[in-house]
């Protein structure tokens, strides 16, 4: 059953309209206001739980921003790939979802970028590709977790080249929101 659901999700992901370029990510500060629509959707965004395409130029661009952020040790450069604060508030069952976003997403993301900047010599990195993980699953809504059945995927990869050597950066978890993929756990 799970294999059939994954196969269907992958098939549907390939048939979805691709979002264009734009900024729908989280702001630089934990309290920043963020656009409610996914990148590139000006009028009617897809439903919250829509399965985004696995490969778009817009997603690759946001992955480049993440690689640049790690290279420069500046998480703010990749704020567009972090799960948006307003999306977290709309989808989490929590007493204070805004505070939870800052504590569970924003702060760990900044720490992970800083840690990866020290480990990966990515200052002069050249982005090669972004590959969404293969095992997609729909999260079950439950108390103190997601209020909606959002899609998640684990072990997505950014491939890049530094000093002639090809390297891979793994992204632990990404979550779909309104037709786009966002990082919910970097490490």
Secondary structure layout:
Layout: H1 2-15, H2 57-72, H3 85-91, H4 97-119, E1 126-131, E2 136-138, E3 151-162, E4 165-177, E5 180-185
Antiparallel strand pairs: 1-3, 2-3, 3-4, 4-5
Q: What does the model show?
A:
The chain has 187 residues and is an alpha+beta fold. Helices cover 32% and strands 21% of the residues. The chain has 4 helices and 5 strands; from the N terminus they run ααααβββββ. Strands 1, 2, 3, 4 and 5 form a 5-stranded antiparallel β-sheet that branches. Helix 2 packs across helix 4 and helix 3 (85-91) crosses helix 4 (97-119).
The pLDDT mean sits at 79
Strand proportion: 15-25%
Q: How many H/I helices? A: 4
Q: What is Rg?
A: 16 Å
Q: What separation lies between the terminal Cα atoms?
A: 29 Å
Major sheet, described briefly? 5 strands, antiparallel
Number of strands: 5
Uncertain stretches of 5 or more adjacent residues: 1-38
Query: Helical proportion?
Result: 25-40%
Structural class: alpha+beta
Global outline: globular
């Amino acid at each position: 059953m799970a294999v059939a659901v994954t196969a269907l999700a992958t098939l549907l992901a390939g048939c979805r309209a691709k979002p264009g370029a734009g900024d729908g990510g989280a702001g630089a500060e934990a309290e920043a206001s963020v656009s409610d629509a996914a990148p590139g959707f000006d009028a009617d965004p897809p439903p919250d739980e829509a399965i985004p395409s696995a490969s778009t130029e817009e997603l690759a661009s946001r992955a480049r921003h993440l690689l640049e952020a790690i290279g420069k040790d500046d998480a703010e450069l990749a704020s567009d790939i972090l799960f948006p604060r307003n999306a977290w508030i709309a989808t989490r069952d929590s007493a204070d979802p805004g505070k939870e976003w800052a504590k569970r997403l924003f702060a760990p993301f900044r720490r992970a970028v800083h840690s990866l900047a020290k480990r990966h010599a990515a200052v002069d990195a050249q982005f090669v590709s972004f590959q969404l993980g293969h095992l997609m699953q729909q999260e079950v809504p439950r108390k103190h977790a997601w209020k909606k059945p959002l899609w998640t995927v684990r072990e997505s990869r950014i491939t890049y080249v530094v000093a002639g050597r090809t390297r891979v950066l793994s992204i632990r978890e990404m979550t779909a929101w309104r037709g786009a993929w966002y990082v919910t756990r970097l490490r």
